[in-house]
Design a protein that fits this description.
This protein is an alpha/beta fold. The protein has three domains: about 10-195, Rossmann fold (3-Layer(aba) Sandwich); about 300-435, 2-Layer Sandwich (Transcription Regulator spoIIAA), CATH 3.30.750; about 440-450 and about 460-590, 2-Layer Sandwich (Transcription Regulator spoIIAA), CATH 3.30.750. A hairpin with a 2-residue loop joins β11 and β12.
């Protein structure tokens, strides 16, 4: 097994290192696996010759815990972890979570609320002059002023509250190497003024020549029309080819967001995933119950990143981007071979996928030039004729993985985009994955039955889902497989009233579907859905959007969708009385 990076002074002594160039701090347990962002960044930096150490889940109540590896020569890098710390710490109804699968033994409370801000300010207490670089999903989605669901207010860019020097947004391999190499060559952190995929705070913007001004923080925090305008500016400037620098004023200072980083090439992406990861949680967690979140990805392979779907509630458009970047077949196969000889591997590769499993190998002629269409989506209202799927290449890889000695099963654990599985070109792909790569349950996300709600989600119309379900059942029957669909739904999404929730409940009751996978809507920072939630308008059309905001209505909508659960009986009756629809109670009961 490859060695972990240093986490203690003993580790430094073992390597005969007197100090570190870079120290990375994470809100997750230290897992050296390519599905963990801090591990990828640490290995990328190590590969460039830098000495890197990791401080995982430091107790933020004592600043001394941030000094365990000493003072880095170049900078501290901070991430809240694989999820936003507020989502990790609180339920959709803002109640504290009791557990955290990214922590040892799934113990809750191991990371602070707003972890990036807390960690950065603790470092400032003890190392006043060391540069601080923010990264990861929490920082990325909070790079501009943003609506914060937990405060129910518009907050400043996270750069201001954290007092960090620079923020890396999106997938950060290019940016972090450029920052490290510039600082290593003697550049001052305050002079890093043109790195793509970063944001900084400046006292003046005289160094800029071509930029767009977003409404100021003062304007967006007091006027929802200005907030919508800010959202559109950010949304329309996510194309790496055409995006401009954005500037947002905060009192006497300016937030400067440079254009997005260019996506990695196939060769570059291969190199990232071929770095010497230990592919394990640190041994210090063994006595604490291990890291549950790691167990689900331990024997998985990331085949691609990016998603062309642009679901309104999803952060991927603003973090990984719309351009799908896929690894080469040989790189994926080599990783499968490495997994097959891991000591505790039992023969099952749990996933070969990415944000959307069946987008591996997808392409568009514009993507070759780091470009995509303005004002037009890849999949909605239907798949663009220039959006090509990589099903043949994908199946070739699956077949080769099945031939590897020691591999008994290779499953698809990532979600599938079902609207890409209903046309004739997808039939061979669907048949083969049903025959060999579904462990019994296929994950898909219809999300809702209301076409008005689905439109606000940027999802296909409901008849596409029904067409897929029929095709899936026919396919499974034709090959003699006893496999099923797991449906994921979102309750209390913008546009959904109790009426829409009831219609979904009636649809499910008629088909005797009893969904367990219900997600209460959370407006993640920076997303289109968060914009709907806060402004109660569609920023593209400026038309009003109904938003269920009270916890009571949110609870009633969920209860309707899960009407078969006896615990929800009184809530279902309350909802039906509000709708003057007690006459449908028997239908919900299946009678």
């Amino acid at each position: 097994m490859n060695k972990f990076l240093p986490i203690s002074q003993n580790d430094l002594r073992e390597r005969s290192w007197s100090g570190l160039d870079i120290i990375l701090i994470t809100g997750d347990a230290y897992v050296d696996h390519p599905s963990y962002g801090v591990s990828v960044i640490s290995r990328v930096l190590e590969n460039r010759g830098f000495k890197v150490g990791i401080i995982s889940q430091p107790d933020w109540r004592n600043a001394k815990n941030f000094t365990v590896l000493g003072k880095p020569r170049l900078f501290f890098g901070i991430t809240a972890g694989n999820t936003d710390s507020m989502i990790a710490n609180y339920t959709a109804n803002k109640r504290p979570r009791s557990d955290d699968d990214y922590s040892p033994g799934s113990k809750g409370g191991m990371r602070p609320d707003r972890a990036c801000i807390v960690y950065a300010n603790k470092i400032r207490e003890v190392f006043k002059d060391v540069p601080i670089v923010l990264g990861g999903i929490e920082a990325s989605l909070r790079r501009l002023a943003h609506y914060d669901y937990w405060d129910d207010s518009v907050r400043r860019s996270i750069l201001f509250d954290s007092r960090a020097d620079i923020l890396v947004y999106g997938m950060g391999e290019r940016q972090i190497v450029e920052i490290a190499e510039l600082l290593d060559n003697g550049e001052n952190i305050r002079n890093l003024n043109n790195i793509r995929g970063t944001a900084v705070v400046r006292g003046d913007i005289n160094f800029l020549s071509d930029y767009l001004c977003a409404p100021s923080f003062e304007d967006v925090s007091h006027d929802k029309e200005n907030f919508n305008e800010m959202f559109l500016l950010e949304y329309n400037n996510m194309n790496p080819k055409t995006a401009k620098t954005l500037v947002q004023k905060y009192d006497t200072r300016f937030l400067v967001r440079f254009p997005p980083a260019f996506p990695l090439s196939e060769f570059e992406l291969d190199k990232v995933y071929e770095l010497p990861y230990a592919r394990s949680a640190h041994s210090s967690y063994d006595s604490l119950g291990g890291v549950k979140g790691f167990e689900t990805v331990k024997f998985s392979i990331t085949s691609h990143r990016g998603c062309a779907g642009e679901c309104a509630f999803c952060a991927l458009y603003f973090h990984q981007g719309r351009i799908v970047q896929s690894r080469s077949a040989e790189s994926i196969l080599e990783e499968a071979r490495k997994i097959s000889i891991v000591k505790d591997f039992r023969g099952t590769i749990s996933d070969v996928g990415g944000p959307t499993a069946n987008m591996f190998g997808a392409s568009c002629s514009l993507w070759k030039d780091n470009n995509f269409c303005a004002g037009k989506k890849c999949l909605i209202p239907q798949k663009c004729e220039n959006f090509k799927l990589g099903y043949d290449k994908c199946l070739d890889i699956y077949r080769e993985i099945r031939k590897i000695s020691g591999v008994k099963h290779m499953f698809i654990g990532s979600g599938m985009r079902y609207d890409l599985l209903v046309d004739s070109y997808a039939i061979p792909y669907l048949k083969e994955i049903c025959a060999h790569h579904i462990s019994g349950l296929l994950k898909i996300a219809p999300e809702h039955s209301s076409n008005n709600v689905l439109k606000l989600m940027n999802k296909p119309s409901f008849d596409v889902y029904e067409k897929f379900v029929k095709l899936f059942k026919e396919t499974a029957h034709s090959i003699g497989k006893n496999i099923f669909i797991v449906n994921y739904f979102i309750s209390a999404y913008p546009g959904s009233s109790l009426k829409e929730a009831l219609n979904l409940a009636l649809y499910l009751a008629k088909r005797k579907v009893h969904p367990e996978q219900i997600q209460d809507f959370i407006p993640s920072p920076a997303t289109l859905a968060a914009c709907f939630y806060y402004t109660e308008k569609d920023p593209f059309t400026r038309k009003p959007v109904y938003v269920p905001k009270t916890f009571r209505e949110r609870k009633l909508q969920r209860a309707l969708i899960q009407h078969s659960n006896p615990v929800n009986k009184s809530l279902v009756i309350e909802a039906l009385k509000k709708l003057n629809a007690m006459h449908v109670l028997k239908k919900l009961s299946g009678r």
